[in-house]
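Need residues for this backbone.
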């Protein structure tokens, strides 16, 4: 829908040229380190909660629907606000939005650990999602304008390796925390890391430069948030209501259908206002690289996020493993992605991004197939681990090439919006 909306744009809107201005005495690799720390805790909280699902269910007396909302409240607000988070970074400064998102996320993490019931935890998880949506697009945007094109692949490879490290740390360290200290510590562990990231960001992240007063597309903001919220809420609630009625005249098809109509209205509104600082810069999907990579990242994430939660529940609830044991089973996948991501990054810098991406996708699909084959009551642990390793190698090989190809032709003043759109697809 958004592709069709923006492909016809023939000129760029007169938006404020927003780009970080690095201190020449600050190494770009130091900037990358600061960004990766912030990115790390955002991703950590996505995977670490999955391993705690059985403990949360027992301690908070939560039913399955509530557990799904504890997991998905974060995803729902995160997905619904990423476009806005990316655009706000373009308008008001990527460093400022990075710090704001990190602050919201850390405070929400503290509140999550104090939750006394499912409702409170769902609400605070939603606040975490808001913080994550403000922070995440800024990491990719700052990397894009900090590193020249011939070194960007290596930077994206390290950025992707951090994602792999977060997925290792989530199940393994999270499993130990749940077993030894309780589920509340999976949220409180974010506090020291987040505070350290804030101090480093204040000192080392580049400031933004604005040549004119920015203007936010408020109508587009409301339409995008509402449309994505309705669609995601309908998909989350669909299974528990058997894709039928929720209450009174409100049904799952009505919820999803209304969300789709609102997204179409958003697309129309963006095209109509393409010369007045739209939320989605005109013509961004006319770049074939960016449009195709947005679809690829959505497909990869569909498989990755759709695998972890049911696999964790299977290992603990069906096979009676502890949270720590389940985390150890999943660790080889993340280790493999950490190993392959920097290699793929160097390949991307040597004009082999397409080859690395295709190889990664083939390995990812093959590994997922092996995992599905091995996931049964009388399972073969070696077969399961082999599948996870193959999938991890493939996943790691997709991070850097995918981002390098997607952001290759994106202008710096659109970097935040582009990052937000990529992460919304994810």
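Answer:
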């Amino acid at each position: 829908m958004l592709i069709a909306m923006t492909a016809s744009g023939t000129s760029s809107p007169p938006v404020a040229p927003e780009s970080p201005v690095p201190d020449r005495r600050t190494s770009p690799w130091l900037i990358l380190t600061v960004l990766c720390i912030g990115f790390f805790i955002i991703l950590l909280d996505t995977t670490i909660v999955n391993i705690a699902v059985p403990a949360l269910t027992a301690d908070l007396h939560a039913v399955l629907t509530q557990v799904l909302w504890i997991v998905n409240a974060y995803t729902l607000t995160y997905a619904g606000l990423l476009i806005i988070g990316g655009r706000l970074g373009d308008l008001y400064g990527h460093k400022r939005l990075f710090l704001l998102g990190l602050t919201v996320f850390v405070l929400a993490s503290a509140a999550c650990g104090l939750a006394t019931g499912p409702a409170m935890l769902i609400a605070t998880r939603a606040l975490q999602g808001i913080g994550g949506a403000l922070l995440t697009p800024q990491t990719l945007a700052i990397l894009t304008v900090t590193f020249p094109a011939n070194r960007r692949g290596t930077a994206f490879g390290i950025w992707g390796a951090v994602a792999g490290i977060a997925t290792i740390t989530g199940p393994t360290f999270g499993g130990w925390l749940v077993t030894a200290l309780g589920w509340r510590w999976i949220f409180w562990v974010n506090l020291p890391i987040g505070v350290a990231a804030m101090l480093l960001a204040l000192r080392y992240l580049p400031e933004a430069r604005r040549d004119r007063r920015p203007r936010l597309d408020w109508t587009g903001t409301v339409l995008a948030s509402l449309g994505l919220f309705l669609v995601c809420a309908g998909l989350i609630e669909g299974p528990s209501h058997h894709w039928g009625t929720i209450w009174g005249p409100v049904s799952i098809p009505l919820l999803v259908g209304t969300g789709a109509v609102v997204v179409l209205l958003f697309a129309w509104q963006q095209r109509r206002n393409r010369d007045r600082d739209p939320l989605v810069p005109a013509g961004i999907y006319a770049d074939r690289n960016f449009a195709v990579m947005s679809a690829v990242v959505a497909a990869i994430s569909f498989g990755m996020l759709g695998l972890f939660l049911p696999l964790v529940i299977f290992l603990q609830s069906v096979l009676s493993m502890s949270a720590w044991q389940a985390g150890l089973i999943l660790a080889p996948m993340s280790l493999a992605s950490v190993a392959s991501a920097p290699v793929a990054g160097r390949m991307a810098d040597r004009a082999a991004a397409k080859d690395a991406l295709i190889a990664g996708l083939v390995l990812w699909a093959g590994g997922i197939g092996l995992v599905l084959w091995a996931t049964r009551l009388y399972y073969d642990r070696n077969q399961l681990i082999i599948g996870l390793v193959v999938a991890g190698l493939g996943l790691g090989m997709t991070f850097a090439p995918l981002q390098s190809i997607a952001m290759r032709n994106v202008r710096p003043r659109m970097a935040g919006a582009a990052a937000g759109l990529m992460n919304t697809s994810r």
